[in-house]
Amino acid sequence: MTGRIPKPTTARLCKVYSLLDELEKYGERSISSHEIGKRIGVRSHSIRKDISYLGEVGIVGSGYAIEKLKAHIGSKLGLDLERKACVVGLGKLGNAIMQNEKLFSNNFKIVAGFDSNINKIETIVTDIPVYPAHEITEIIRRDAIELAVITVPGHAVQEIVGRLIAGGIRGIVNFSPVSISSSDDRVFVSNIDIAGEFRFLSALFTLEQK
Amino acid sequence: MTGRIPKPTTARLCKVYSLLDELEKYGERSISSHEIGKRIGVRSHSIRKDISYLGEVGIVGSGYAIEKLKAHIGSKLGLDLERKACVVGLGKLGNAIMQNEKLFSNNFKIVAGFDSNINKIETIVTDIPVYPAHEITEIIRRDAIELAVITVPGHAVQEIVGRLIAGGIRGIVNFSPVSISSSDDRVFVSNIDIAGEFRFLSALFTLEQK
């Protein structure tokens, strides 16, 4: 089975990849589709179908060979390449994300930080190069940065997104209070909203209580 | 239409609620299902069906009355109640989340922070009461805290989750590198993983390139 991989399949395969990455660190060698499904909360039938999009994958005994399956998914989805990333907005949250290396697997490298406040740029303590926000387009293009995290205030979001896209950014993780949708088909956006997560969880336990 | 509201409907209604909340601040009075769908990236047919789960909702001209629809969703999903929340793990990320009031709508109030490092508890500068991690269960129960954000290292996650659940927590937003699934049906978990978001975005633009 080949051809276009549907978006939900892509999302699940990314989760499978993260799981395999974790298992590999613990020295695990193989895993069944049943166990994968249990760990990521999906039926094992869906897991087998998702994996079938990758073409031939090695089976060892009753399960998949972890190293091989991880390599297959990684190469098909481009997860085995190192990607450069930046953070726009260096307030407490942006600074924490920029500096918290544990948040990022080795394949994502934060190579730049941006803020519109020049004082902040001059006084921030970090080994990562930081620049004023008006240089976003230039630096993204120069350093071939593919991914960005945005933590700027709501009113600044649209302008920042415009500059990122002008520089050639490909993916944006948006922590700002304003949800964004990309008008450019080549740019993908993921909105993360903690208040929104709290709302959803509250709704789930409210409905469950009734 | 009444009865059990499906989880995807709940998720979309929460997004509609956030949108209405934003529009209300800009003084908007009414909105069509078409416009709602466009803004949150869902077909207008789905929006109308989702809203039909709420029972009778006022229509003004060609759209929904924003204030009324927001109140309907809020009351049905329990989004109009103030909820107490806490942050476990007061490193840079946890501290940023605890102190960044803009991240939270007025209905979510951070009333406690926890960390296993006593030095950190004693030296942190914040108006929010902070406690050692071994007091989690006691404080959650005493203050009737319903929601928690976790930003602790992976190895500490399971123990922290156990203490939160023992105290009666209902929802957990997990920023730690280890994905968690609740074994308790009454507790809902949302895992947020920035590296995972980067992976998914990378996969989307990798597949789009081919």
Structural features, described:
The structure is a homodimer. The first copy, chain A, has about 210 residues and is α/β, with parallel strands linked by helices. Chain A folds into two domains: about 5-75, Winged helix-like DNA-binding domain superfamily/Winged helix DNA-binding domain (Arc Repressor Mutant, subunit A); about 85-195, NAD(P)-binding Rossmann-like Domain (Rossmann fold, 3-Layer(aba) Sandwich). Chain A is about 45% helix and about 15% strand. Chain A has a six-stranded parallel β-sheet with strand order 6-5-4-7-8-9, with helices on both faces. The mean pLDDT of chain A is about 90. At the A-B interface, helix 1, helix 5, strand 8, strand 9 and helix 9 of A face helix 1, helix 5, strand 8, strand 9 and helix 9 of B.
Short structural summary:
The structure is a homodimer of 210-residue chains. Helices cover 46% and strands 17% of the residues of chain A. With 210 residues, the first copy, chain A, is α/β, with parallel strands linked by helices.
Looking at this protein, list some descriptive labels.
homodimer; 210 residues; alpha/beta; Arc Repressor Mutant, subunit A; Rossmann fold; 2 domains; 6-stranded parallel beta sheet; 3-stranded antiparallel beta sheet; 9 helices; globular
Low-confidence stretches of chain A: none
CATH topology of the largest domain in chain A, anyone?
Answer: Rossmann fold
Broad shape of chain A? globular
The two chains with the largest interface, and their residue counts, are: A-B, 66 and 67 residues
Overall mean pLDDT of chain A stands at: 88
Q: Determine Rg of chain A (CA atoms, Å).
A: 20 Å
Q: Which CATH top level class of the largest domain in chain A fits? A: Alpha Beta
How far apart the termini of chain A lie comes to 45 Å
The helix tally of chain A amounts to: 9
CATH architecture name of the largest domain in chain A? 3-Layer(aba) Sandwich
Number of domains of chain A: 2
Major beta sheet of chain A, specifics? 6 strands, parallel
Order of helices and strands of chain A: HEHHEEHEHEHEHEHEEH
Helical/strand content category of chain A: alpha/beta
Q: Please list the strands of the largest sheet of chain A in the order they lie side by side.
A: 6-5-4-7-8-9
- What fraction, in percent, of the residue positions of chain A are helical? 40-55%
